[in-house]
Amino acid sequence: MTPEPAAQGTDFYLLDDFLTAEDRALRLKVRSFVDKDLLPVINGYWERAEFPFELIPKLAALGIVGTTITGFGCPGLSRLAAGIVAAEVSRGDGSVNTFLGVQSGLAMGTINMLGSAEQKQRWLPAMATLDKIGAFALTEPDHGSDSVALRPVLGGTETATSSTAASGGSATRAWPTS
Fold first, then answer.
1. CA distances from 136 to 87, 100, 112 (A)
2. Could you write out the DSSP letters of every residue in 76-109?
3. What is the DSSP letter of 149?
4. Which SS3 state, helix, strand or coil, does residue 147 take?
5. How far from 28 is each of 21, 65, 67, 87, 99, CA to CA, in Å?
6. Cα 19 to Cα 24, 26, 39, 83, 114, distances in angstroms
7. What is the pTM of this model?
8. pLDDT value of position 163
9. In the chain, which residues have pLDDT < 70?
10. Residues 74, 86: contact at Cβ < 8 Å?
11. Beta bridge partners of 158
């Protein structure tokens, strides 16, 4: 089996033989976007600390946003296909893949799992076409969004461990309000 151009030699675990023609076609479509549209511009955005908004319409045109969600204009990809998308986009830029992961998983996935029928209809189609962009906020007392410095606390003084948390302790949380 001959690998697609521009990524030869990257199938270190010889997984290509297990992919369906549909999986390979999806990979080639995303790989083409990464090679032609993402890689030529992404370093400049990184150096300027800017988000590559010019890529939004091109990402939307791929039809991959919402990954595993079915209906509401989402592609209903298999978990394997979603992994293929993530691997290919990450090959180009991890930050763009993080953007897609937050959009498709944290934002859209939460609405799909917990939203009302009205909320799903209102938000998911526009989010699948990237006309609306979701967000995720992480903030904690004394640490802001520095997830590495987070220290779960039980009873206000004790640092949580897997054993104390499992024994019914309660952690302190702070919620963003604006």
1. 22, 12, 15
2. ---HHHHHHHHHHHHHH-HHHHHHHHIIIIIIHH
3. G
4. helix
5. 10, 16, 16, 12, 21
6. 6, 11, 25, 12, 32
7. 0.75
8. 40
9. 1-9, 140-141, 147, 150-178
10. no
11. 154
